[in-house]
Structures are given as structure tokens and as C-alpha cells.
Here is the input.
Amino acid sequence: MITFRALARDEITQIWNIDRSEIIHNIYILENGLLVRKPAYFEAKGWESGAAERNTPGLLDCFDRGGWCWGAFDADKLVGVAILESKWMGPAHDQLQLKFLHVGNGYRQQGLGKQLFERSRTEARARGARQMYVSATPTENTIHFYQRRGCVLVDPPDPELFALEPEDIHLVCAVEKE
Ligand SMILES: CC(C)(COP(=O)(O)OP(=O)(O)OC[C@H]1O[C@@H](n2cnc3c(N)ncnc32)[C@H](O)[C@@H]1OP(=O)(O)O)[C@@H](O)C(=O)NCCC(=O)NCCS
Here is the structure.
């Protein structure tokens, strides 16, 4: 049975035990302001080399400044995670970034991603945000997932996040109740 709960600070490194493998068939790129799908077959075997070393300090800092870290567990094993940044962003300073969302291979397509996303949206709303910002991996499955959650292209993207991930698709969604 899958259970959801907040992650403790010392559990953040368990993220790198989540099975990140994925077979990618298509990606999206942005051309003249439009999303264009391109074939791009790729077998991701796991996390990119060095991902844990590069990203753990930033995730711990995020936790320390009040970021929100929520995990999906299969018994004691972390199998999915969502992290909401605490720093306000956007022209009106009313956006919070969904900094991280992953569901392990073997646990996808079962509704976990949706639950992690919607719980993050609820948290963003509780903190007073009007929008949630997502710098999304450009793979087809991921972009479709976010579009089905109501995410749309943000124009212009946040300059700092765009500089960090220029190939990502930068999206926002409303967090207020429809
Ligand atoms: C993108 C990602 C987070 C989605 O997570 P997920 O757990 O697979 O997503 P869900 O299962 O909630 O939803 C995907 C689809 O699964 C299907 N689904 C959901 N519940 C289901 C169920 N009980 N039975 C069968 N199918 C189901 C639905 O078609 C759903 O689509 P919907 O949006 O129309 O509801 C996940 O694929 C992932 O981690 N990918 C790799 C990492 C990544 O790209 N992360 C994002 C970085 S920005």
C-alpha cells in the first residue's frame, strides 16, 4: 500500500534511490512560442551521473528555508516525491515553484504523480500563492501530464530558472479553486 507523508530532512537523499529509468520516444521544444513535438528516442537508465552530488545541497537548502517536501512510500521505500519551493517568484511575487516531482519506474501510471502534484497545489494555495511554476523536463509524457493538470506555457519564463534549464518547458498553473 502506498502512503504519503512529509519527508524528514535526512530522508531527502533517499530521492536518489527512486528508479529514474524511463524510455523516451518524443520530446517537446519551443518554436516561435509554440510547443512542437520531435522524435527523440532515449533510454534513460537512471539519474544523470552526478545528479545526487549536484542537487542534494540545493534540496537541503530548500528544506531549511521552509520548502515543502512530500513523499510517496511503498512500505518504507520512497517511490515518489514532490518538493515545493518557499521563495516567492513571478512578476507579482505570487508564484511558488514546484521544484521537484518524480515517480519511480514501476509506480507510474497509477495516479501517484497526480496525487503528489495536487497535494503540492493545495500546499501552494495554503501558502497564499496564485500560481505554481514548473520548469518541466521536455519529454512528451511529462509535458502531457502537466497539461492535463492545467499547466500552460509561461511567457516570459523566469530568467533565473530559464538560465538553469534552457531546454525545459516552463509552465504555470493556477492554484486557486476553479
Ligand atoms: C511525470 C510523472 C511525475 C507522472 O507521474 P505518474 O505517477 O506516472 O502520473 P499519474 O499516474 O498520476 O498520471 C498519469 C496518467 O496515468 C493514468 N492513470 C492514473 N491513475 C491510473 C490508474 N489508477 N490506473 C491506470 N492509469 C492511471 C492516467 O492516464 C493519468 O493521466 P490523467 O492525467 O489523464 O489522469 C512521472 O511519469 C515521472 O516521474 N516521470 C519521470 C520524471 C519526470 O519527468 N518528472 C517531472 C520532472 S519536471
Q: What stands out?
A: The radius of gyration is 16 Å. The longest strand covers residues 34-44.
